[in-house]
Amino acid sequence: MALKELPYQDGINWKEFEGKSAIFKWNGKPMAGTLYLDGFSNLAVRELSGYMPVLYIWPDDTSHVNVERVTDFHVFEFVED
What we know:
This protein is mainly β. It has strands at residues 2-6, 21-26, 29-34, 36-37, 43-44, 55-57, 63-65, 70-79. The strands form 3 sheets. A 4-stranded antiparallel beta sheet has the order 1-8-2-3, with no helix packed on it. The chain starts with a strand and ends with a strand.
């Protein structure tokens, strides 16, 4: 297994990222976790407490980085060698 970085830009369908690993800075602090659909229809990671979306999901199912808190966002998936 190898880790492959996926290209990200705002506007991509969120379903491409659910369950994928992400690394990013949250208010300047390095964080990592698996993206999951939270109860508010946004993508979050369990390592952040409370309602803390990493990616907002818009009504058209596109994803958008939480620009107030998230910088240096990267998303990865595991692939066979």
